[in-house]
Amino acid sequence: MNKERLKPEHPMEALLRMDRMPHIWCPTCGIGTAVSCFITALEKIDYPLDKVVVVSGIGCTGRVAGYVKLDSFHTTHGRPIPFATGLKLGNPELKVVVFSGDGDIVAIGGNHFIHAARRNIDITVICVNNFNYAMTGGQVAPTTPLTALATTSPYGCFETPFSIPYLADSCGAVYVARWTALHIRRLTKSMVEALNKPGFSVVEVICPCSTLYARRNKLGTGLDLMKFYHESSVIKHGADTRELDIEFQKPMVVGKFVDRERPTFLESWNAQMKKALGEKFQPYGGSNEHD
Amino acid sequence: MKVDPKGVLTGSYFLDGDHACCEGALAAGCRFAAGYPITPSTEVVERFAERIPLVGGIFIQMEDELASSIAILGASWAGLKSMTVTSGPGFSLMMEHIGLGAMLETPCVFVNVQRGGPSTGLPTLPGQADMMQARWGSHGDYELISLCPNSPQECFDFMIDAFNLSERYRVPVMFMMDECVGHMTEKVVIPPADQIEVVPRRYTTLPPEEYLPFKPDPDLVPPMVKVGDGYRFHVTGLTHDERGYPVMSAECQETLVHRLIDKIRRNARDIWIYEEDQVDGAEVVVISYGITHRVALRAVQMAREKGLKVGMMRLIVVWPFPEERIRQLADKVKAFVMPEMNYGQVVLELERCVAGKAKVLLAPHGGGTVHKPEQIYERIMEAAK
Amino acid sequence: MKLWRTPLDIDRLKIPHGELHIIKDRCKGCGFCVEYCPREVLELSDEFNIKGYHPPYVKDEEGCADCRLCEAICPEFAIFVTTKEEVESVES
């Protein structure tokens, strides 16, 4: 008898495309851990998983869409948010998750990010921040801490980086949290809260990039970065998002920073049109209406 | 399939091409438009924004054309017919997602009300210089469909064809208007809803366990599914196999890209739409498209008055180019004249198909206004020598 | 485990037990599970898996308290835990 076949399955296999494993992420990269937390979060939300869609852009984290066994889209660089906007407005029944990296979300896709937050499009953005462009070989990113080395900042980064939670908060996101890949329980909990929150929710995941960021900056492996997160992250729920800058290898603040109520894009659309047009307004229910 | 009558504004109207284009989209069942303001196309989305809450659908003004052009792909996968509207500079930004739309085989319509270029060029004046961009603008190899209307009535009529072709072949369709057609006001008759035929989306009949998202039917078009229907499918802009999974190999590239191209080329006979007038026995045939055709009509009339045998052919579908018909004509006629509002774009394709069997003369024009009939007439006379 | 006081319900508390399953050939040897197991149940082995990495092995089979931290932190989906039926009381 084949002993292997009697073994129980990994509980996440049902939601992963096992025929595509092993995934492309390097040893001690944290993206897999973020995906693992996401899968656990999906099991904890009370939502039919057939209606959950994952949209990614390009980059290491951009590959997430290809590994989750859900309706999933691997789009163009920087554009998962507007693609997700079209999906969500096309069928408001869907729970749309954008899972992508820092370069994708706040550099090339920065404009889409701030406007989706402003409009309060009802999607969840999980932004894995590994402080550099890893897929292309470790170039400087708008999240690279000052003085950190990258292939295109060989003498140290001298541009002030973005703080993703501050950016999200100031543009109107209704839920903003930051955790590291080490904070698996809290990260999972935040993902659940973000998924359940109507409106534009953002979860930043600080994630070790072993092959490029850690190696170039002589920080050891991803495991060493995990140890660093353990020692130097300070949990501060409700912290003022203006004080969340990340300095190179200095203590960083993590936690849930924003949780507020604002009408979503579609709620505002329906309310405004009803007010302006009265009975003539055809309330909009998405593609399911036209079946 | 009959259309949803909610979007059909049956009656006779005095409309400009932009507004007629919007009505054509609504009549065809378009329920999602994303756009970004740009002259001379903005009237299309202005009307859409006004009309859509009365019809049941959504308009969203995105932050730029990059966003608009991918939002419509998302909406299409969610199950809606969708379009975006722009002009030259915006069209340049949309190239990224015309490529993605071709790669993901997403039905959708891109309207380009062409103005003079390059760059900011002539925002309020016409051009036809985006024709090659419509065909080749995005990187990589692909085929898609482009239509050129020449009147507000055609903006209405051919928008319905544009949506039908995009659904039929799962391909982005370029609706290449120009500023003249967009801002010209004429009578537009919108028929009753029961007289409008639309092509329904080709959804798979297979259960999820048997379905492969990019396994084509015999006509090379794969049936689609809608997000949220339990198929748990994956779609990527990377080169992918029938499962939709990325495969980085020359073999997979060959299978996929060859099919994307053949899907249009092999079905071209069913896609071509063109009109002909007195081409049998003609010495010279004038081939034109869009607004330029209406100027060419006068030029041809002038030449015929001089006793020349001049035929006319008008391309409504410009891409794929009707090469088969051009080859037939090339064996019979002495020369072709092609007026276009650029310094030679579609004429290159004409030259390729004529392959030296007849003279090909271009009547170029930089845009900003239409040709003078005399400019085309002179080329006809030169061709007839 | 060090408790700062003895829980009042200590007689009723049970320590759950888990059985660890390691899918060796999926492992890339990152060591996250080894480092962060709160009961230090795991250790990297000397053996090579199919990809040439050293997967972990269970050095203390009885030690697993079914917390599933390894399952959650593993970036490769290569380790998981199933709950064992028998439990021990905290006092024992």
Task: Give your account of this protein's structure.
The complex is a heterotrimer of chains A (291), B (385) and C (92). Chain A has 291 residues and is an alpha/beta fold. Chain A has a single domain, classed as 3-Layer(aba) Sandwich (Rossmann fold). Chain A is 35% helix and 17% strand. Chain A has helices at 3-6, 31-44, 64-67, 80-90, 102-108, 110-119, 164-171, 184-196, 210-216, 222-232, 265-277, and strands at residues 52-56, 71-74, 95-101, 123-129, 132-133, 139-140, 175-180, 201-206, 233-235, 252-259. The model of chain A is unreliable at 1-5 (pLDDT under 50). The model of chain B has no long low-confidence stretch (mean pLDDT 97). In chain B, α3 (65-77) packs parallel to α4 (88-104), α10 (292-305) packs across α13 (373-384) and α11 (323-330) packs across α12 (346-354). Chain B has helices at residues 17-28, 42-55, 65-77, 88-104, 131-136, 152-169, 179-183, 250-265, 268-271, 292-305, 323-330, 346-354, 373-384; strands at 11-16, 30-35, 58-61, 81-86, 108-116, 122-126, 145-147, 172-178, 185-190, 234-236, 274-277, 284-289, 310-315, 317-319, 335-340, 359-364. In chain B, strands 2, 3, 4, 5, 6, 7, 8 and 14 form an 8-stranded mixed sheet that branches. Chain B is 38% helix and 22% strand. With 385 residues, chain B is of the alpha/beta class. Chain B folds into 2 domains: 2-195, Rossmann fold (3-Layer(aba) Sandwich); 274-383, Rossmann fold (3-Layer(aba) Sandwich), CATH 3.40.50. The longest helix of chain B has 18 residues, at 152-169. Chain C is mainly β and 92 residues long. Chain C has one domain (17-84): 2-Layer Sandwich (Alpha-Beta Plaits), CATH 3.30.70.20. Chain C is built from 2 helices and 4 strands; from the N terminus they run βαββαβ. Chain C has helices at residues 32-36, 69-73, and strands at residues 14-22, 42-44, 56-58, 79-89. In chain C, the strands form 2 sheets. Chain C has a two-stranded antiparallel sheet with strand order 1-4. Chain C has a two-stranded antiparallel ribbon with strand order 2-3. Chain C is elongated, with a radius of gyration of 15 Å. Chain C starts with 13 loop residues before the first strand and ends with a strand. Chains in contact: A-B, A-C.
